[in-house]
Amino acid sequence: MKLIIATIKPFKLEDVREALTEAGVRGLMVTEIKGFGAQSGHTEIYRGAEYVVNFVPKVKLELVVADNQADQMVEVISKTAQTGKIGDGKIFVLDVEQAVRVRTGETGEDAI
Q1: In the chain, how many domains are there?
Q2: Residue 82 has what DSSP assignment?
Q3: How far apart, in whole angstroms, are the C-alpha atoms of residue 81 and residue 22?
Q4: What angle is formed at CA 99 by the lines to CA 95 and CA 104, rounded to 5 degrees?
Q5: Structural contact between residues 51 and 44, judged by C-beta atoms closer than 8 angstroms
Q6: For the chain, where are the alpha helices, taking DSSP H only?
Q7: DSSP strand E in 36-102: where?
Q8: What CATH number does the domain containing 79 carry?
Q9: Neighbouring C-beta atoms of residue 1, cutoff 10 Å
Q10: Distance CA 7, CA 33 (A)
Q11: Which of 10-14, 54-58, 76-80, 98-102 has the least mean pLDDT?
Q12: Helices 13-22 and 70-81, axial angle in degrees (round to 10)
């Protein structure tokens, strides 16, 4: 099993969720986060005063999929979240040793 962690722009969340659902994902976790990468923040003007925004709002998606689905899901997220502009996000793929569904006690891929 693989854990896919993706950071994307918030306005792309619904498009990515729909694309993942169509691709067969049965569940995912979403967290609102702030961070910075290559763009390392930016300057904004509010009521005539300029200030620096060091952390940019993002959305973090986490989903666990079977090994044979990981590449497809990464491609779905990448294509759907891409705007072509700086700050589109990142995707990380990690190995998952075990999964357990608390309600039923199912383990492994049966739990996802």
Answers
A1: 1
A2: -
A3: 15
A4: 165
A5: yes
A6: 13-22, 70-81
A7: 42-46, 49-53, 56-65, 90-95
A8: 3.30.70.120
A9: 18
A10: 9
A11: 54-58
A12: 150
Q: What is the pLDDT of residues 50-74, one digit of tens each?
A: 777 778 889 999 999 999 999 999 9
State the Cα–Cα distance between residues 71 and 82, nearest whole angstrom: 16
- For 19, the domain range is 2-111
The CA R_g of the chain, rounded to the nearest whole Å, is 17
Residue 7: CB atoms within 10 A of its CB come to: 20
The Cα–Cα gap between 102 and 80 comes to: 32
Query: How many whole angstroms separate alpha carbon 27 and alpha carbon 110?
Result: 13
Residue pair 73/17 in contact (Cβ under 8 Å)? The answer is: no
State how far the alpha carbon of 70 is from the alpha carbons of 42, 62, 84, in Å. Answer: 33, 12, 23
pLDDT band at 40 (very low <50, low <70, confident <90, very high): low
Burial letters for 86-109: b for 16+ Cβ neighbours within 10 Å, e otherwise? Answer: ebebebeeeeeeeeeeeeeeeeee
